[in-house]
Amino acid sequence: MALIVQKFGGSSVANAERVMNVAGIVADTYKAGNDVVVVVSAQGDTTDDLIEKAKEINPNAPRREMDMLLAAGEQISISLLAMALIKMGLPAISLLGWQAGFHTNSSYGSARIKSVKADRIKMELDRKNIVIVAGFQGLCKYDDVTTLGRGGSDTSAVAIAAAMHADRCQIFTDVEGVYTADPRKVPNAKKLKEITYDEMLELATLGAQVLNNRSVEMAKKYNVELEVLSSLNRVPGTIVKEVTNMEKMLVRGVTKDTDVARISVIGVPDVPGVAYKLFGKLAAKNINVDIILQSVGRDGTKDITFTVARSNADEALEVINSCNLFGGSNVVCDTSVAKLSVVGAGMETHPGTASTMFEALFDVGVNIQMISTSEIKISVLIDENDADRAVSAVHKAFFPED
Ligand code: ASP
Ligand code: MG
Asked: What is the pLDDT of residues 90-99, one digit of tens each?
């Protein structure tokens, strides 16, 4: 007998039929003799719909009240899933985040889990219940309901698996696992059997939307092995763990992220402190900067170019224009760019990954605007209109069709 945590995302419980389908998967796991803790997200687009409802009433609603509202989505899905299992003749009980022992800090809207006191869950398991827990929510020290940020249910599942030393943590979604590229865009993308936490973290951060990156960070920290798999097709998924058994693959995946804007500050004085002042102002406004490029100084001036999330572009421009630090400089912003990345732990030890990528882009006539690298990742900034074709070309270079 094992303790298994199963998490089902919003699309997996979107309607009555899907809820019954999930109940079937949970029932099979339970009937095989396992203790089962299930974490669910809100049905389908419920969370988005609730946000819209709030906007109709008060677009500047306090975050505490937003959390009170958004937590309702998961309350619906846990009770429906419990009812489905009970109808199948199985003992099931639903628990809200606070009942399941989720204590968080009081950053409403993006709360961090401080601890999971799983006594109630354990008691219910001892009573042979299937325990269904509302993902995405907890309780802070003021006894207020908090939420963990969008996509937070993955983190709830990992937190339970870590706190209870579960034997397995399965994240069910509407795709069959983690792919070498988005299978909707790249038809010959391959499903990976395994991937390391670090690779998954890079992919999750770079726009592969299978797992929330905070959940991967937590899984790495507590060494919780994850399995990402489909709730619709019962086939093996992708295992996310510390070290994969397979030889390090040179490249594990190719991703694109279009939530990017490029800002250039042209003609700033070529003196010490300019970068510090510029990025200091942006940091003070909590604007995250990604790729940075500075040109070589010439005639006493230089150019600094960097990228930010597209949603931060206007604010970033305001910050730069208002700080008046760089008299005579000229600011340009381009929002039709995309970041294309290749990720793989194997590139640490294999030279030539960058040149393979750049050659593939050259072959399809795609211009590279900026480049950034880490030990296991190479990212380039390109024109957004080239992005899909560039992903296909780069994917083909690293995963030639067999
Ligand atoms: N329901 C929340 C959201 O849509 C949490 C989750 O889905 O994981 O963001
Ligand atoms: Mg959702």
From this structure: 999 999 999 9
